[in-house]
Structures are given as structure tokens and as C-alpha cells.
Write a structure and sequence with these properties.
With about 150 residues, this protein is mainly alpha-helical. The chain has one domain. It is about 75% helix and about 5% strand. Strands 1-2 form a two-stranded antiparallel sheet. α1 packs antiparallel against α4. It is elongated and about 70 Å long. The two termini are about 20 Å apart.
Length: about 150
């Protein structure tokens, strides 16, 4: 009888998978980095501010939906460290979203409160995500071999 086939997951694949959720977190927060200065220094009309807030919040909501799929795939990666980094990034992001839901319930269309909340969330999520990405890049990644019995 022949040996069961095995499959190799490369170190590069594991590293990319570990960083994927973190990149999504940064991309979701990116529009706010451009909108917030315009709201503060540009003094746009009220309706324009509401539209800018929508532009700032929609990517976060879209990433929330997409991130669930990314989490399911990446958390169960054969390389346990890739799953661990995904889990940490997810904890941060879902914690931020939970915070926004709780406090945002009372804001209505008050622009100032939404902007302050976004700044608080960004000041937590962005630096921590960048630190995590640096940690992923510096980590020593090795190939993972999956035996045929595990496939």
C-alpha cells in the first residue's frame, strides 16, 4: 500500500494569511484619514458632513461582512501562528465595532460625536495593526507539512 500524499503550505503563504486581516483593518479605516481633516479644517456644509461620514463608515461596515469570511478561512490555517495573528486582529476590529455600536446608538446625526469616536477607534486600531504587521514581517516563518491523513 502506498504512503498517503502530503501537502506543503509555504511560509510565504502562512505569512500572507497572517497579515490579511490586518490589511483589511487598515483599508477599512483609510477613508476616515482623508475625511476627518476635511471635516475639521474645511468647514463643509452640514449635508456634506453627513455624506463624508457615510463615506467614512461604509468601508468599515463592508469590511465587517467580508472579515467574517476572511476570519473563517484564515483562523483555521494549517499554520497555527497564522491563525493566531488573525484572531488577534479580529479581536481588535470586532471590539472596535462593538464599541461603535454601543456608543453610536445615542449619537443620531451629531457629526462631532461620530468624528471623535472614529478618532478614538483609529488611534487604537491603526497603531496596533501596524505593530502587528511589523511583528508578522519579522517573525520566522516555516513551511507547514500536512500529512495525507489530515487532508
Amino acid at each position: 500500500m502506498s504512503e498517503p500524499a502530503s501537502r506543503t503550505i509555504t511560509a510565504l503563504n502562512a505569512r500572507k494569511t497572517a497579515a490579511l486581516f490586518n490589511y483589511g483593518n487598515l483599508i477599512a479605516m483609510l477613508p476616515g484619514l482623508f475625511v476627518i481633516p476635511v471635516i475639521f479644517w474645511g468647514k463643509p456644509e452640514y449635508m456634506t458632513q453627513i455624506i463624508m461620514l457615510i463615506v467614512m463608515i461604509v468601508p468599515m461596515l463592508l469590511w465587517f461582512g467580508i472579515s467574517i469570511v476572511v476570519y473563517i478561512i484564515a483562523r483555521h490555517h494549517p499554520n497555527a501562528r497564522a491563525g493566531h495573528y488573525t484572531q488577534l486582529a479580529a479581536y481588535r476590529y470586532y471590539g472596535i465595532i462593538g464599541f461603535i455600536i454601543v456608543v453610536g446608538t445615542f449619537y443620531g446625526t451629531e457629526v462631532f460625536y461620530w468624528v471623535v469616536t472614529w478618532i478614538i477607534c483609529a488611534s487604537i486600531l491603526i497603531p496596533w495593526t501596524i505593530i502587528d504587521l511589523i511583528s508578522i514581517k519579522r517573525a520566522e516563518w516555516t513551511d507547514t507539512i500536512i500529512s495525507g491523513e489530515s487532508l
